[in-house]
Amino acid sequence: MKNWKIKLSIFLNYFVFAILLNSVGTVILQVQNNYHVTASSASILEAFKDLSIAIVSFFVASYLTRIGYKRAMLIALGLISVTCLSMPFLGSFMMTKVLFATTGACFALIKVSVYSTIGIITGNKKEHASLMNFIESFFMIGILTGYFIFSAFINESNPAAWLNVYYLLAVIAFLAFLLLLFTPLDESSVKSTVSKPLTEDFAEMFKLAIKPIVLVFIASAFIYVLIEQSIMSWLPTFNSQVLHLPTILSVQMASILAASTAAGRFFAGIALRKIHWFYVLFICLLIAAVLVYVAIPLAKKGTGSPITGWSDAPLAAFVFPMIGLFLAPIYPAINSVILSTLPARMHGAMSGLIVIFSALGGTTGSLITGYIFEHHGGEAAFYFSLIPITLLLVSLYFFNRIQRKSKVEVEFNTTSGH
Question: Which of 177, 193, 279, 351 is the most exposed place for a label (fewest CB within 10 A)?
Fold first, then answer.
């Protein structure tokens, strides 16, 4: 396989941060149980994670070609290794905020670098879309693995035992660091040949952001991540407080969402080679909306007996997380469409915009869901997803129309001299 070593490296980098970033749902439940914070207070962890992603992406994305994609990823992996090692010694709600802020900042470097690297190592739009989906599906495998890793360290008789998971995560991050360190990556095609001031780099990103196709894309990405994070971050709490599952089982069964999302992205990576992306995503969103209508009422139907394991869990715990199968293809598909529309030299700036607005969408979704969860209950919080699903259908319709009409080379020639 061509470029297999760098592909393996970016797969592992994504795997590490998938576990850390999406442990926020598990950690939200743990800090409510162990540090006695409210649901709305716990939801601030999403903001620490996502706002740090947005801020770092804003200041670094356009400058990243000068730093180098490989060097940026090494910095992120080294820093997160040290932070994970510190977590068990300084375990508190405040340290948890620091952990997610650091994780977000490091992931900003990783994601922008990975998205930009895909443009270097793929040869055409279909290959780009396929690799994007496979990488994002591996991200979901990391999330799936994370649920079981965290649940293995939870001990209800020892509230601090779950913090020991960060020793393991530090080791994984360090192994990813070593693999990348010894993996070659030719970045000569995107290296800046002209030394421009940083203000000009920012101006380039803003010029890109006001293009009609980019504006509609940004809206689509924001809404999608709002939906995904509102469900993913609060599913363990939904399982615990609405379905009344034990804490460990609540975390483990949230893995169904990650598994279904990974499967959805894997199969989408195949389907998108043959079927136009808009038709795939439109059908997926319609099915997702139907699933919300069908699954949430099942939460009201208890099993009538104590729940001790997977075999006696209520049907809703299995059905609702299957929404991931249908939401899964959307994010990597639209990211691939916008990136493969641009020349490689603009992928850094565009990746920065993707990360910034995805982060803002994730924070918004988690804060809204946390508020609804605390004041109106978990069922109402998850019914809320129907509103952004509808908005996303509309946004994707316009994104498809504009993308079909766009004249790529002329439309995106934002920099004189290129």
Answer: 193
Q: What is the DSSP letter of 159?
A: T
* SS3 call for 319: helix
Closest by Cα among 388, 405, 252, 267 to 325: 267
| Burial of residue 416, with CB atoms counted within 10 A of its CB: 0-12 exposed, 13-18 middle, 19 or more buried | exposed
Residue in this structure with the two tokens 């970033």, named with its chain if needed: 21
Place of tokens 């700036």: 349
Cα separation, 174 vs 181, whole angstroms: 10
Q: Could you tell me if residue 316 is inside a domain?
A: yes
**pTM for the model:** 0.70
Q: Is residue 418 part of a domain?
A: no
pLDDT digits (tens, 9 = 90+) for 160-201: 788 899 999 999 899 888 888 887 777 666 665 445 555 666
* CATH code: domain of residue 73: 1.20.1250.20
Number of domains in the chain: 1
Residue with tokens 């075999």: 311
